[in-house]
Amino acid sequence: MYIEDTIAALSTPYGTGGIGVIRISGGQAFDTANKIFRSSKTIEEIHSHTVTYGKIVDPKLNDVVDEVLLLKMCKPNTFTREDVIEIHCHGGIVVVNRVLELIFKNGVRPAQPGEFTKRAFLNGRIDLSQAEAIIDLINSKTVESSKAAVSHLEGRLSLRLKSIREVLVGLLAHIEVTVDYPEHDIEEITGENVLENLIKIKEELITLAGTFERGKILREGIDIVIAGKPNVGKSSLLNQLSGSTKAIVTDIPGTTRDIIEEYVNIKGIPAKIIDTAGIRSTEDVVETIGVNRAYEAIESADLIIAVLSADTGVTEEDIQILKMIKNKKSLILINKTDLVEKNSISKIKQQLSECDIVLEASVIKDVGIEELETAISGLFIKGDISSNNEVLLTNARHKYLVDRAINDIEQALNSFETGMPLDMVTIDIKSCADSIGEITGESIDEAVLHNIFSRFCIGK
Ligand code: GDP
Ligand code: ZN
C-alpha cells in the first residue's frame, strides 16, 4: 500500500451552489474530523459508509461554522483506498472556505489537482487509462462522448491492452527459454509461432489506432463555421441548431458584426458553431474587423456550412465565398426555400452541380435541419456512434503509444524477414510490451504521471 500524508479539497465546483462537498483522504482523515465535528457520536462510533448529521466547530473558539452531513468511509472500500471523510456543507463559498481552513489547520494539507485520482491509481484501485477516463468524463460534452469515457473507466481499453501485453510477455518468456535452455522439456517455440502471434497483434493494434479519429471527434468535438453573405439566414441557422436566440437576427444586412459561438450537440458530436459576420467588403470599420475574423475562422474550421438564399439565387458574392472555401470540408445550404418555387431551387442546384453536398432548408420553418444534422454527422462519423460497443481510442497519449507499439512490432517483423536470430527480435517485442504498459501504467515514470494528473482540477 502506498502511504502518504492526508489531503483535502472541495470536490464540487467553486461557486454558490446549494451544497459544497469537501473530501478528506488519508491516515489522518478520521482524527482531523474528530477535532472539528460535533454530533451525538464521535467519529470512531460512526459506522463506515453512513451519513451523520452534525456541526463543524472551530475547536479553538468553540464557534459553529456550519451544519453539515458527514460521510465516513473506511479503507479499502473507498475511491482512494484510504480512509475518507466527506463533509457536505450548506454554505456558500465563505463557509466552505472556513471549513477547509479548519481542516488545513488540523493536520491535513490541500490536495493538488488530480491527487485523489492519483492515489486511486497508485493504490491499485484503477489503472492509468481509467484515471485518464475520469478526466475525459469530467470534460465530456455530449452523452456519447461521456459513454466513451465510461467505457474506458470500466477498464475495457485496459482489458484489451492487458491481454495483448500478456501475449507479448508470454512470447518473450518462451523465446528466452528456447534460446537459453535448448535442452529443456517445454515445447520449442518456432519462428513461425512468434511470427503468427506478432502479425495478429499488429492487426489488433492497427484496428485500435484506427478508432482514434472518431474518438477524438467525440472527445474534442468539431468546429463548424457558418459562412455566407449578409441576410441569408446564418444567425437564424445558428439559433435553430442551438435552440436559443443568442445570435442577433435582423433583416438589416450586416448586423452580425462579430463572431458568435455556440456549443451544440449534433447527433452526439460536440460541435462549436461559429456564426461569422457577413462576408463582404465594407467601409464600416467595426464590420471589417468581423470580416477579417471570419476569414480566420474559416481557415481553422473542421467544416464550413455555406449558406445561400433561394430568393436571390447564386450571386457574385456567393461565388466568391464558394471559391474561398473550395479546399475546405464544406456543405452548401440553400436557405429560404419557402420563398420560391420548386423549379427555381432546381435551377440553383444546377448552378452548384460541381459542389459535393448541396442541401435545402427553410430555417425559420424548421425544414431541412434534421437532414443537415445527419449530413454533418455522416461527414465525421460513419455509422451510428451510440449503437456500437467497440473500444475507442480517445486520448492522444494513448494513440501515440499504440503507434509506437505498432512500430516496434513492424521492427520485429522486419528482423524476422532479414533472418535475425530469435533473441534479437526480443528487443523489439519487449519495447512493444513497454509501450502498451505505459498506457495502463504498468511501466511508466514519475514525470509522465505528474503530467497526466496535473490535468485534473483540484478536488478530483
Ligand atoms: P444573416 O445575416 O445571414 O445572419 O441572416 P439572419 O439570420 O439575420 O436572417 C436574415 C433575415 O432572413 C431575417 O429576417 C430572418 O428571419 C430571415 N430568414 C432566415 N431564414 C429564413 C427562411 O428560411 N425563410 C425566410 N422566409 N426567411 C428567413
Ligand atoms: Zn447574422
From TrEMBL:
UniProt KW keywords: Cytoplasm, GTP-binding, Hydrolase, Magnesium, Metal-binding, Nucleotide-binding, Potassium, tRNA processing
EC number: 3.6.-.-
Amino acids binding (6S)-5-formyl-5,6,7,8-tetrahydrofolate: 23, 86, 125, 460
Gene Ontology MF terms in the entry: GTP binding; GTPase activity; identical protein binding; metal ion binding
Residue positions binding Mg(2+): 235, 256
Cofactor: K(+)
Family annotation (InterPro entries): G_TrmE (IPR031168), GTP-bd (IPR006073), GTP-bd_TrmE_N (IPR018948), GTPase_MnmE (IPR004520), MnmE_dom2 (IPR027368), MnmE_helical (IPR025867), P-loop_NTPase (IPR027417), Small_GTP-bd (IPR005225)
Note describing how the cofactor binds: Binds 1 potassium ion per subunit.
Pfam families: MMR_HSR1, MnmE_helical, TrmE_N
Annotated compartments: Cytoplasm
GO cellular component: cytosol
Keyword Phosphoprotein in record: no
GO terms (BP aspect): tRNA methylation; tRNA wobble uridine modification
Main location: cytoplasm
Protein residues bound to K(+): 231, 250, 252, 255
Ranges where the TrmE-type G domain occurs: 221-381
Annotated binding of GTP, by residue: 231-236, 250-256, 275-278
Signal sequence bounds: none
Subunit description: Homodimer. Heterotetramer of two MnmE and two MnmG subunits.
Family indicated by similarity: Belongs to the TRAFAC class TrmE-Era-EngA-EngB-Septin-like GTPase superfamily. TrmE GTPase family.
HAMAP family (alphabetical): GTPase_MnmE
NCBIfam families reported in the protein's UniProt record: mnmE_trmE_thdF (TIGR00450), PRK05291.1-3 (NF003661), small_GTP (TIGR00231)
Function: Exhibits a very high intrinsic GTPase hydrolysis rate. Involved in the addition of a carboxymethylaminomethyl (cmnm) group at the wobble position (U34) of certain tRNAs, forming tRNA-cmnm(5)s(2)U34.
Stated name of the protein: tRNA modification GTPase MnmE
Organism: Ruminiclostridium cellulolyticum (strain ATCC 35319 / DSM 5812 / JCM 6584 / H10) (Clostridium cellulolyticum)
